[in-house]
Amino acid sequence: MILKKWEALPASMQTEAVKPYYDALKRKTLSLILKRLFDVVVSLFLLILLSPVFLVLSIMIKADSKGPVMFRQVRVTQYGKTFRIFKFRTMVTNAEQLGTQVTVGGDSRITKMGHRLRKCRLDELPQLLNILRGEMSFVGTRPEVEKYVARYTPEMMATLLLPAGVTSTASIEYKDEDELLANTDSPDEVYVQTILPEKMKYNLDAIIRFSFLGDLKTMVRTVTAVLKS
To answer: I want to staple 141 with a disulfide (CB 3.0 to 4.6 A). Which of 27, 33, 159, 163 is the partner?
Structure first.
């Protein structure tokens, strides 16, 4: 994983707000290479190892509610590129037509099986496919939908220097995000105006402090947090 040259970045990222983060990552070439090698080897290994789990969960999802096993949605990753994320479906099939694009506590759109999957974050397992394809990484800023990325400040655009991730320090600190949005009249606006800026402080700090070892520590912290919940 090598950063593009500065002049090859999208125009929206060639700003003074992004430059310090770009310069910080440019000094971490070895860590970036190790990060991608780790992503490829471990995601491939886990996809093979967990294939029986994928099968069992798929059957349980189909038995619990009507609809496809996978939920596919357009998200934004490195350099502002869009991709379709893989997740086990945890909501009713027409969920996006019934509410916002953020999930709130006690969301009636979530299925019974969906509650179980979300509690253990098993709905994220299919993202191993996105990691193997290079669309995501194990650690990085969670991929947002396009309408939220459109609300990014110039500094927030720096998070698009690296691929989106399955987990991050922000994800750990805001693991109960849906509960924070449960009692709001406008979850979308509260998310963009309040929660997103706070999460981005963690994400931007992670870019400045980026290291391959730091990624491994974040993964261990994530597993610990899931087990505790």
So the answer is: 159
Residues constituting the chain: 229
pTM above 0.85, yes or no: yes
One-letter amino acid at 20 equals P
**In this structure, are strands 70-76 and 136-139 parallel, antiparallel, or unpaired?**
unpaired
Q: Dump pLDDT digits (tens) for 215-228.
A: 999 999 999 988 88
How would DSSP label each residue in 121-189? TGGGTTHHHHHHTTSEEEESPPPPPHHHHTT--TTGGGGGGS-EEEE-HHHHHTTTHHHHTTT-S-HHH
DSSP letters, 25-73, are: HHTTHHHHHHHHHHHHHHHHHHHHHTHHHHHHHHHHHHHHSSS-SEEEE
Say how many Å lie between the first and final Cα of the chain, rounded. Answer: 33
